[in-house]
């Protein structure tokens, strides 16, 4: 392959020829990697043939009109090439209304500006161009200038929880939507703005041991294990269902031994599955003709093909797992690997009750999540949902739309401080060529599903709107390649869906962030995610609170980082040593030495804000550098972040409860109890001890101190939507 052909093909496909890792090393894209990516993109292995195919696709577009046109307020102009002097156009709105117009006396074959009416509404429309017998259609998406950002709210903080880990007197070994409602009401009473959760995506009902919320089966649907079975309509009246639930010995073990510390997903599934099946049987026998039955049919209709595919997949997965243990759909008999095959259609018809059961689970999960959101909203609070960057290759989302996913590659991350050899997350990326050909409809549908019942949506690894790190199958992570995505179009669609759902967007913009991306996201109304350990100046000192940007969410950590207590005590470093995650001892020593320096820098930062007197430093660090943890430290850190200019402060429940362990340790699967830890205290204990009220008062006082200082610095400044 010639160098020029290699470079031209990479440019046309948005494949970077090199990247810099955080250590300053340059990694060149190998021709082997490029050939592997061509295969993943479903292009010919010969680069020249791939280029010819790309050029041929572009030549076939009449009028130079792409399959989808995205206009962003106030833009109303697009450019077309007229094959003759006259051009007629029409636009059919998503409402069915239509407008039309014409241009005459155009220069033939030259690019011409087509200006559409200013009154063109936001939404998903259909544009038609016509010149004699030549006609072309394109999807036309008209989007607002920026995403939804609530204005003028007094509520300025939120709590982040791992829903599965919530412990209560009434749940069955895993947090559920009933617990979410209780916590939402309590937080609302304490003037919180949001209650955030881990991703609620559907996992694998037939294999509960696959429980990572960031490797779901399908991001468009909900994990039914979060259903509170005692709140399902009919439970109170159904003696058989109650007997199944109350007779399960697992309930008696909730507060004993390992069950008190960790979620046992298999035991929870064994408890909930038969109860939910009994309640579905009750519904099917008696409710199909009632108002509840009508509501279920409406849910099925609204879910459409996506819901039907998901439910059929779940029924097939159950069938083949039970029959021969073939958990992955790629090991099923060939006809069942195709969701549109005759065999799959016949299976769905023959097992209609089972397929409907899985639709019933989604209906009830959606209903209960909606009730939890309504409980929070009544108290002045919104639920915050989290959207994972990808889906498990064995799951329903990939099975149901295989052309959309580049299954010959996996999403990951280049070498960084958390993983010096890079990370391979095993999740297939979306094919950007197919995504564009589909008019970005899968992206819009994914946003719509996850903004449902949510006043805020956090997008994990928001850089995926701009580029993703693709690792060709079978190659080491550090040999991965950055592949670009149509950022401007995706950001516009995000703004449109955000405004329609009235859902604020937080973009998790950590790690290797391309230059200028944060500015573009800010212009698009997307909140930056600013995490204390990463907010440093050139000398490594922690940034002052006033240095945080206004349009941001500030936090002390994420689910992948140590809690405040764990950070201070070096618990994450101890885990990495224990599990031999360091490539060598010098790396471990470097981390330990860096943490010693960070402890001192953090104390200095807190002292500079008047939050921790220097004479108390010895309470937290011995002369030899040995750390001691006290509640005052977490309080000072929370107050420090509350004084920032950022619109939203997010406090992890782990820090409220003074937990030492973090939810997830990157680079591990089974070695560390990821996504399993239950809270030290129950919800009842947490509410009774007044800790939420105390944290709320701490934040309120810190905000007041900050606002007082801001008023003295900037008298008379108007509210501009980026301030609290």
Question: How many angstroms does the end-to-end distance come to?
Answer: 56 Å
How many H/I helical runs? 23
Q: Look at the structure and give the mean pLDDT.
A: 92
Number of DSSP-assigned strands: 23
Rg from alpha-carbon coordinates: 27 Å
Strand content: 15-25%
User: Which structural class do you get from the secondary structure elements?
Assistant: alpha/beta
- Spatial order of strands in the largest sheet: 10-11-14-17-20-21-22-23
- What kind of sheet is the major sheet? 8 strands, parallel, barrel
Report low-confidence residues grouped into runs of 5 or more: 711-724
What does the overall shape look like? globular
Percent helix: 25-40%
How would you classify the quaternary structure?
single chain
Structural summary, described in words:
This protein is an alpha/beta fold. Among the domains are: 70 residues, Immunoglobulin-like (Sandwich); 199 residues, no CATH class. 39% of the residues lie in helices and 16% in strands. The protein is built from 23 helices and 23 strands. The strands form six sheets. An eight-stranded parallel barrel has the order 10-11-14-17-20-21-22-23, surrounded by five helices. The chain has a five-stranded mixed β-sheet with strand order 3-9-8-5-6. The longest helix has 34 residues. The chain is globular and about 80 Å long. It starts with a helix and ends in an 11-residue tail after the last helix.
């Amino acid at each position: 392959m010639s160098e020029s052909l290699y470079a031209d093909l990479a440019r046309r496909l948005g494949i970077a020829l090199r990247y810099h890792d955080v250590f300053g090393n340059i990694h060149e894209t190998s021709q082997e990697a490029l050939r592997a990516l061509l295969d993943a993109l479903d292009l010919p292995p010969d680069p020249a043939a791939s280029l010819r195919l790309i050029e041929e696709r572009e030549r076939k577009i009449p009028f130079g009109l792409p399959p989808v046109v995205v206009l962003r307020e106030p833009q109303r102009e697009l450019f077309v090439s007229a094959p003759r002097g006259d051009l007629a156009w029409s636009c059919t709105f998503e409402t069915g209304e239509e407008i039309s117009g014409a241009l005459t006396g155009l220069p033939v074959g030259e690019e011409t500006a087509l200006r559409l009416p200013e009154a063109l509404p936001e939404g998903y429309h259909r544009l038609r161009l016509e010149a004699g017998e030549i006609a072309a259609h394109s999807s036309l998406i008209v989007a607002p200038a920026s995403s939804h950002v609530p204005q003028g709210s007094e509520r300025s903080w939120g709590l982040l929880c791992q829903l599965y880990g919530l412990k209560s007197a009434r749940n069955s070994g895993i947090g559920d939507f009933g617990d979410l409602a209780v916590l939402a009401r309590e937080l609302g009473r304490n003037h919180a703005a949001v209650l955030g959760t881990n991703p609620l995506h559907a996992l694998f009902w037939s294999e509960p041991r696959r429980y990572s919320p960031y490797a779901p089966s399908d991001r468009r649907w909900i994990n039914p294990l979060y259903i509170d079975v005692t709140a399902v309509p009919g439970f109170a009246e159904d003696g058989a269902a109650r007997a199944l639930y109350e007779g399960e010995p697992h309930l008696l073990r909730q507060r004993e031994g390992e069950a008190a510390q960790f979620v046992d997903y298999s035991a929870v599934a064994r408890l909930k599955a038969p109860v939910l099946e009994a309640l579905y049987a009750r519904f099917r026998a008696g409710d199909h003709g009632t108002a509840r039955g009508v509501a279920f049919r409406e849910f099925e209709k609204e879910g459409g093909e996506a819901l039907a595919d998901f439910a059929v997949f779940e029924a097939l997965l159950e069938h083949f797992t039970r029959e021969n243990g073939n958990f992955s759909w790629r090991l099923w008999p060939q006809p069942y690997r195709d969701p549109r095959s005759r065999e799959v259609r016949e299976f769905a018809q023959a097992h209609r009750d089972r397929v409907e059961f899985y639709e019933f689970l989604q209906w009830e999960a959606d209903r209960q999540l909606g009730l939890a959101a309504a409980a929070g909203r009544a108290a002045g609070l919104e639920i915050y949902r989290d959207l994972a960057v990808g889906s498990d290759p064995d799951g329903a989302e990939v099975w149901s739309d295989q052309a959309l996913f580049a299954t010959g590659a996996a999403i990951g991350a280049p070498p960084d401080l958390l993983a010096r050899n890079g990370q391979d997350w095993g999740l297939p990326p979306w094919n950007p060529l197919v995504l564009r050909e589909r008019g970005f409809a899968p992206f819009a549908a994914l946003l719509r599903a996850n903004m449902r019942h949510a006043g805020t949506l956090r997008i994990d690894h928001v850089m995926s709107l701009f580029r993703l790190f693709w690792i060709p199958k079978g190659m080491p992570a550090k040999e991965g390649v950055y592949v670009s995505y149509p950022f401007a179009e995706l950001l516009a669609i995000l703004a449109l869906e955000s405004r329609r759902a009235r859902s604020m967007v937080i973009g998790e913009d950590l790690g290797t962030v391309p230059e200028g991306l944060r500015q573009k996201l800010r212009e698009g109304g997307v909140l930056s995610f600013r995490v204390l350990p990463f907010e440093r100046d050139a000398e490594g000192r922690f940034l002052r609170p006033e240095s945080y940007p206004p349009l941001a969410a500030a936090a002390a950590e994420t689910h992948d980082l140590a809690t405040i207590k764990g950070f201070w005590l070096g618990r994450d470093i101890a885990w990495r040593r224990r599990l031999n995650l360091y490539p060598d001892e010098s790396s471990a020593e470097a981390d330990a030495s860096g943490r010693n320096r960070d402890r001192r820098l953090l104390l200095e930062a807190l002292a500079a804000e008047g939050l921790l007197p220097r004479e108390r430093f010895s309470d937290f660090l011995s002369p030899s550098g040995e750390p001691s943890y006290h509640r005052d430290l977490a309080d000072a850190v929370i107050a420090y972040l509350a004084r920032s200019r950022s619109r939203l402060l997010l406090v992890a429940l782990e820090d409220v409860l003074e937990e030492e362990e973090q939810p997830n340790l990157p680079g591990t699967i089974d070695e560390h109890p990821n996504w399993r830890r239950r809270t030290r205290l129950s919800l009842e204990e947490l509410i009774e001890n007044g800790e939420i009220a105390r944290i709320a008062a701490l934040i309120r006082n810190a905000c007041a101190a900050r606002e007082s200082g801001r008023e003295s610095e900037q008298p008379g400044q108007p509210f501009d939507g980026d301030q609290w």
